[in-house]
Design brief:
single chain, Alpha-Beta Plaits, five-stranded antiparallel sheet
């Protein structure tokens, strides 16, 4: 391959992945062409993309980026998997591996971490949506418990209804000391 072509490939990899801080690496080479297209199509429905990369070009292009630790471990046929959430992507790849057992799951990085993890380990983590749900639950829990203990909601609503009924009938509301 000529130097010009290599530089074009490196430039494309740098453009596509240079600013990312998360990606997974898999091997789709054992799949047939039809299987690979179906596999990619199922991932694409979830917003997850798969791109085969040339290892040496990826190593050079990603030097000094957040994905550098990932690039250093590239061996054999590799494809980068990217999407909105690497945890969700890892879970989806593991789910699809049941239908495509020849896909080799390698490793990945998430959110700029420096430790490269296996895809199985990444899939065990909680996704951003799950973590956000837990935070909301933690904030809502004390207020819900207090309201439940005081049973304030039903008493206040009853008082408001009684006042509204009296006002509708034209009665005056007197202050109770």
């Amino acid at each position: 391959m000529s130097r010009v072509v290599k530089e074009m490939i490196e430039s494309d990899i740098r453009e596509r992945y240079g600013k990312m801080d998360s990606a997974l690496v898999i091997n789709v080479l054992p799949l047939t062409g039809v299987q690979a297209n179906m596999f990619r199509g199922e991932l694409l429905k979830k917003g997850i993309e798969v791109h085969v990369v040339k290892n040496s070009a990826a190593r050079r292009a990603l030097t000094g980026t957040a994905l550098a630790p990932l690039a250093e471990k590239l061996t054999g046929p590799c494809a980068f998997v990217t999407g909105p959430s690497m945890v969700e992507a890892a879970k989806e790849i593991i789910h699809l591996a049941k239908d495509y057992p020849t896909v080799e799951m390698k490793f990945g990085l998430t959110d700029g971490e420096t430790d490269v993890l296996t895809i199985e380990d990444m899939a065990k983590r909680r996704s951003l949506k799950e973590l956000q749900g837990e935070v909301v639950m933690i904030f809502m829990s004390p207020a819900r418990r207090i309201a439940g203990q005081l049973k304030v909601g039903s008493k206040v609503a009853g008082c408001v209804k009684a006042v509204a009924d009296k006002l509708e009938k034209g009665e005056t509301i007197t202050k109770v000391a």
